[in-house]
Description:
Blueprint: H1 12-22, H2 28-35, H3 39-51, E1 55-60, E2 63-68, H4 84-92
Amino acid sequence: MICVMAWGFLTNHAQALLCIAHDPGVRLREIAIALGITERAAFGIVTDLVDAGYVVKDKNGRRNRYEVQVDKPLPEALLNQRTVGQLVDLLAHTELETHDDT
């Protein structure tokens, strides 16, 4: 019997966030390829992340650079005391700089 996994634990939004955390200069085309989605779908996901304040987009010539807002709390009720930075650190083994305003 062959078992084919048709689902995953991470949404496309979470996976795109990890792509951006790994490479702040990542292109939408690269996100789309990594996630197995269209470039238009990747654009929509990144727009969602920017609009929700999880990512800041900065235009640099013809390229975009992104910055993950690591101090922003996760939206899920069960995880609302955790931050985006903690999620990225856990899943990507990436240490992102946190901004302490105190």
